Amino acid sequence: MRSLGIGLIGTGFMGRAxxxxxxxxxxxxxxxxxxxxxxxxxxxTKRAQRCASAWGFAQAHGDWQQLIDNPHVxxxxxxxxxxxHYPMAMAALAAGKAVYCEKPLATSLQQADAMRLAAYEAGVxxxxxxxxxxxxxxxxxxxxxxxxxxxxxxxFQGEFSEDFMADPASPWSWRCEVEHxxxxxxxxxSHLLAMARYLVGDVSKVCADSQTVHxxxxxxxxxxxxxxxAVDDQVHALLRFANGARxxxxxxxxxxxxxxxxxxxxxxxxxxxxxxxxxxxELRLFRAGEQGFQRLLAGPALPGYAAFSPAxxxxxxxxxLKTLEVQELIMALAGQGAAGTDFxxxxxxxxxxxxxxxxxxxERWVNVSEI
Length: 371
What we know:
The chain has 371 residues and is an alpha/beta fold. It has 2 domains: 3-130, NAD(P)-binding Rossmann-like Domain (Rossmann fold), CATH 3.40.50.720; 132-309 and 342-370, Dihydrodipicolinate Reductase, domain 2. 33% of the residues lie in helices and 25% in strands. It is globular, with a radius of gyration of 21 Å. The protein starts with a strand and ends with a strand. 48% of the residues are buried.
């Protein structure tokens, strides 16, 4: 069996999630490659060495370019702050290596466009970390919609809210810079836009409103120095889908009480489906003519679930979704599947987000085709 060398850039929350996913994938699934954890890179060389040892990577680098140049690395996984996605991915693509990049793809549509074109020219597999779509319950929702169980889809109502920035005394971070991040829309809303497109289809027209609620934040924890904030804290939007459905989406990182509230209701002429990521192992289904919603629980009959548990109701979690995303990436590298969001599809998400920002700035409906 041919080996596939994994190179991981970044050692934060997402870096650890990726390391777990690669380790779990080779333990849980029969893969067409022998996965080897070839190298890990972090700007902090000592941390890179410590994490490489703890997570099972053979080498540690203090310079990400050294990881890309490493001949044992075939797949480059990028889990850094958003503004570094572009240079790292472009370097990996220039080296002819597959790329697994966290979302959002880039900090500008121009960068995203260059990345998808470079991926096309390189002819390599790319994937972007929209891992919530890899939930077996989301696959079930997609199958039900495609099979016509809800009838003609007429509306999508979605929200992704958390509260990790709700305290106005929460300090400034890289997420607060337009050039480095992009606000709640980029951080949370991109997941919701990707989900809407995955389940309902292309969006043709948008109208939006965005707001920066806390215009200043402390420069660091406990600091008396304040830094100005220009990114959005919350966004609300109206969508018109190409298939005629209408939609609303909202995203906020200020909403007290919510920790991972990626939720949606999809209504059709025959029924409604509802989902909340905080209860990620269930869907709620209402069929026209019935008296209430039916609760559908995840179980081993669903593809992907049985790999982790043989019993229904035993629950998958965030890291299992990441493992399923990695498994589908590995199968794509072997030419045995096309599931997941590649750079082309991620560019479409960035295009939609750009249309929303333009609509909010100019206070008008925007055709996505304008972008």
